[in-house]
Amino acid sequence: MRNISPSEVKNASVSNLKSLCEELRKEIKETVSSCGGHLSSNLGTVELTLALHRVFDFPRDKVVFDVGHQCYTHKLLSGRASVFHTLRKEGGISGFPKREESEYDCYGTGHAGTAVSAALGIAKARDLKGENFDVIAVVGDGSFNNGLIYEAFNSLKILNTRILVILNDNGMSISPTVGGTHEILDEMKGAHVPDEDIKLYEKFGLRYLGVYNGNDLDELLPAMERAKEALKFESVLLHVTTKKGLGYAFSENAPAETHGVSPHPSEKKEYAQALGEELCKMAEEDDRIVAVTAAMTDSLGLRPFFERFQGRAFDVGICEEHASVLCAAMAAGGMKPYYAVYSTFLQRSFDEIVHDICGQNLPVTFCIDRAGITGEDGETHQGVFDLSFLSFIPNLTIAVPKDIGEFRAMLRASKNFSAPLAIRYPRQGTEGEVLPLEMGKFEVLHSTISDIVVFAAGERCIGLAKEILKKAEREGLAFTLVNARFVKPLDAALLSALHQKYIVTLEDNVLIGGLGDAIARFYRGEERQVVSFGYRDAFIPHGEAGSLSEKYGLDKEKILQTIRSFHARG
Questions:
Q1: CA atoms of 537 and 375, how far apart (whole Å)
Q2: How far apart are CA 294 and CA 338, in angstroms?
Q3: Is the pLDDT of residue 82 over 70?
Q4: DSSP, residue by residue, 157-168
Q5: What is the value of pTM for the model shown?
Q6: Structural domains present in the chain
Q7: Distance (Å, whole) CA 470 – CA 468
Q8: Is the peptide bond before 59 cis (omega within 30 degrees of 0)?
Q9: Residue 535: pLDDT band with limits 50, 70, 90
Q10: SS3 sequence, 99-143?
Q11: Which residues contact residue 263 at a Cβ distance below 8 angstroms, ignoring those fewer than 6 apart?
Q12: For residue 215, what are the contacts with CB-CB under 8 A and spacing of at least 6?
């Protein structure tokens, strides 16, 4: 697509702007079809973003997109149209706002709820430096459930600054928006806005303007101008409604299914589907079992459970910390909670995991999806830290299945497990056998007479180890292969019984604080050499998952070379 100049947006007629919206939609749809990405959220915010670029002066003015799922039009209008075809590809542009990428991206985002706090910080820095520009936070109604938004609102008067908050209300996060805040916003979209709803936001120090049709430029542009004028004197909340997926019939009718689109459909099964299947079976037998999610019912495979066990299924919105405490308290009350969450979003619950769940030794099971390198969504979504930040927490058992069959076995074993448990797994995998397992016990997958043993954790690393084993055997080399399916506690009995001098560890996680560190600590003081392979101390950008995995630490040839060097020593 051609690069669109700021003057073209500023000077075009409204009729030409409407034509430009269709041009932008076409480019987004075609690029996402090729590269993957967030489709429905971006299709719904084309007019809103175009209106922002028409009324405000970027990059002098600053805009922060909450999460960033809706930033594609902004990228197209800010000098990146000619490289938009590289979206989410390694070395190409990111699918999220990224400060290093463009001066138009003033603040990097990727997780919900941060935009208002960020806008306040940017505005206050502006005030302290005596500068003059406007600061805008674009926030979806899904993020309005997140407590961080209200922490930011609470400090608006304290900070004594001015920002514009645009509430993009489409009734969706990834799944449909739920909860009390959603009900308030629905009331405000009615024919008569209740005074008490407006006063709620005015008490924070926000002048409320709304509700406007965010997909109608004739209505939206004057509203945006009005908000800009009011911003000279006070902070403003501009409430607009949009339709997620607008302009693409399939996406309009299936906004959740087209929230994130993969460019290469896989024939592999998703772990999320297995989670839904197993939890339903378990819940039929045990009425203590409850399922909790933070606004990701469908993505995490819980839709069947929500439909069959409505009284025991809870979507709490984008409130990961609250979900953790809720699980802790339900467990304290005699229930058996399963909290399904992406690895990257589990980070938001760290304090609650330590204090509320593990500190009280409560039987909450974390089902941690998208663990390891996830690929094209980049730094904010790579699930490569959970082994590290979970492994030092007392009372917590950490399981890493080698395939979906073993994942099913872990879920079944969890039913009668009376302590905190975390099961971490990638998005997709192979089915495998469902065999009984003992908590905390490794599995020897290949045994041979050799002075080398390889410990691998998780499906990616088990698969990698098996590939290396085949290649090593063709070279006349050999090693014992162990499925390190419990990173905490380690299988001390097996580790103590092994005679091998040379140890290699593989993990789909950063090296610091992971499996390799744990095994090296176990063998400290012994005459053994431990060499660990995982991801180096870096934030891993967007790109194809397999390529990134090799580039950032799980290099097949380097691992094989290590095994060769150990054999040479005898």
A1: 17
A2: 12
A3: yes
A4: HHHT---EEEEE
A5: 0.93
A6: 6-253 (3.40.50.970), 269-429 (3.40.50.970), 443-569 (3.40.50.920)
A7: 5
A8: yes
A9: very high
A10: CCCCCCCCCCCCCCCCHHHHHHHHHHHHHHHCCCCCEEEEEECCH
A11: 32, 33, 34, 35, 36
A12: 44, 46, 47, 48, 241, 242, 243, 246
Q: Check residues 510 and 179 and name the one with the higher pLDDT.
A: 510
DSSP assignment letter at 2: P
Q: Which of 67, 173, 150 is nearest to 115 (CA)?
A: 67
C-alpha distances out from residue 31 to 83, 238, 249, 331, Å? 11, 30, 17, 45
The residue among 491, 506, 563, 502 whose CA lies nearest residue 529 is: 502
For residue 419, give the nearest of 488, 340, 372 by alpha carbon: 488
Q: Are 81 and 53 in contact (CB under 8 A)?
A: no
Would you name the residues annotated as active-site residues? Answer: 244, 320, 348
Length in residues, the chain? 570
Residue 445 has pLDDT above 70, yes or no: yes
With cut-offs at 50, 70 and 90, classify the pLDDT of residue 137: very high
Whole-angstrom Cα distance, residue 53 to residue 74? 8
Which amino acid type is present at position 367? C
DSSP string across 440-473? T--EEEE--S-SEEEEEESHHHHHHHHHHHHHHH
The answer, yes or no, to whether residue 448 has pLDDT greater than 70, is: yes
Q: 152 phi and psi, to 5 degrees?
A: -70, -45
255-307 pLDDT per residue, tens: 777 887 877 667 789 999 999 999 999 999 999 999 999 999 999 999 999 99
End-to-end CA separation in angstroms for the chain? 60
Backbone dihedral angles phi then psi of residue 5, each to the nearest 5 degrees: -80, 150
**Alpha-carbon distance values, 509 to 43, 340, 397, 520 (Å):** 34, 19, 17, 16
H and E: helices and strands count for the chain: 24, 19
Q: What burial class does residue 384 get, using C-beta atoms within 10 Å of its C-beta: 0-12 exposed, 13-18 middle, 19+ buried?
A: buried
Evaluate the omega torsion of the peptide bond into residue 211 and state whether it is cis, within 30 degrees of 0: yes
Mean pLDDT of 520-537: 97
Residue 469 has pLDDT above 80, yes or no: yes
